[in-house]
Amino acid sequence: MKKSFVKLLCCSFLCFGMLTIYQPIDFISAQKEVPSYAKWGRVAMQKVKEKYPEAKIVDYLHVGRKKGDKTSTETFKLWLEAPKKEFGIFIDITFDNITEKVVDIKYREVSS
To answer: pLDDT per residue over 29-88, tens digit each?
Structure first.
């Protein structure tokens, strides 16, 4: 009776160990995928920090991409906390599709 219990216990630990070993590997590999807008998100945060140096970025949202023939525009919404106010900024980054050189950047402040 004790031997079968010990075998069951050993098998349980073995199965649990395999699950904990293999599951995180899949999780880690899934996190390595970088979204196509990541580069432009970094540019958006850098430009907003330059324009609003007194504010702290507390939230970030990729709104979307509008793809044109020669240029595309990535739109982001960043939520900022400044010493006397809290507000959102929509930032549109237009860039050349081939060279990825920034063509234009537009900012729109929103209160909510």
So the answer is: 556 788 989 999 999 999 999 999 999 999 999 999 999 999 999 999 999 999 999 999
Burial class (CB in 10 A: 0-12, 13-18, 19+), 97: exposed
Among 49, 109, 39, 33, smallest CA distance to 74 is for 39
Please count the structural domains in the chain: 2
Which domain range does residue 96 map to? 38-110
Rounded-to-integer distance, Cα 4 and Cα 22, Å: 27
Based on the domain organization, do 64 and 100 belong to the same domain?
A: yes
pTM for the full model? 0.70
Do both 53 and 103 map to the same domain?
Answer: yes
Residues 6+ apart with CB under 8 A from 66: 72, 73, 75
